[in-house]
Amino acid sequence: MGKPMTFCSNCRAEIDEKAAMCPKCGVPTGTRDPTLQSPKDPGLAAVLSLLFSGLGQVYNGELRKGIGILVGVVVGWVTFLIPGLIICIYGVYDAYTTSKKMNAAEIPFKKADRADYILFILVFLILIGVFAAILLWMGLL
User: Fold this and answer.
1) Fewer Cβ atoms within 10 A, N terminus or C terminus of the chain?
2) φ and ψ at residue 32, rounded to 5 degrees
3) How far apart (Å, rounded) are the C-alpha atoms in residues 44 and 59?
4) Residue 12: which region, alpha, beta or left (left: phi > 0; alpha: psi -120 to 50)?
5) Pairwise pLDDT comparison (113 vs 141), residue with the higher score
């Protein structure tokens, strides 16, 4: 006797009933193996993004989104205060909700590796260098 099977609600392919997503079309099934612990901590993702804009997204395995939020916040703070604040708040909200959705198998789980964190830090340092150079050129630093 084989594994218990069910059908994907999207493509109707036969899949393992414990599968988190359909291997054929990638749609989440809404189920997760109960023996697995929650792989993401939504609170940690939110705090990381609050302390360092975009870092919560990197924690969630979304490097490009994290870099985009980092750049948006820095540019928003430099040009006008309100856009930077809005992007910062969005980043915290997004990090939290994305982490919860990954835990519920609503979206595919992504794991960040060490290279993602290193690249994110390098982008941050480059941004700081660019803005320091601009301030030096303008005679404000």
Assistant:
1) N
2) -145, 145
3) 9
4) left
5) 113
Is this prediction's pTM over 0.85?
no
DSSP lists the bridge partners of residue 7 as 14
Among 134, 4, 25, smallest CA distance to 75 is for 134
The residue type at 54: G
Report how far residue 71's alpha carbon sits from residue 138's, in angstroms, rounded to the nearest whole number: 21
Q: What is the DSSP string of 69-126?
A: HHHHHHHHHHH-HHHHHHHHHHHHHHHHHHHHHHHTTSS------HHHHHHHHHHHHH
Q: What is the mean pLDDT of residues 111-138?
A: 91
Q: Is 48 exposed, middle or buried (0-12, 13-18, 19+ CB in 10 A)?
A: buried
What's the token pair of residue 66?
């994290």
3-state helix, strand and coil shares in percent for the chain, rounded to the nearest 5? 55, 5, 40
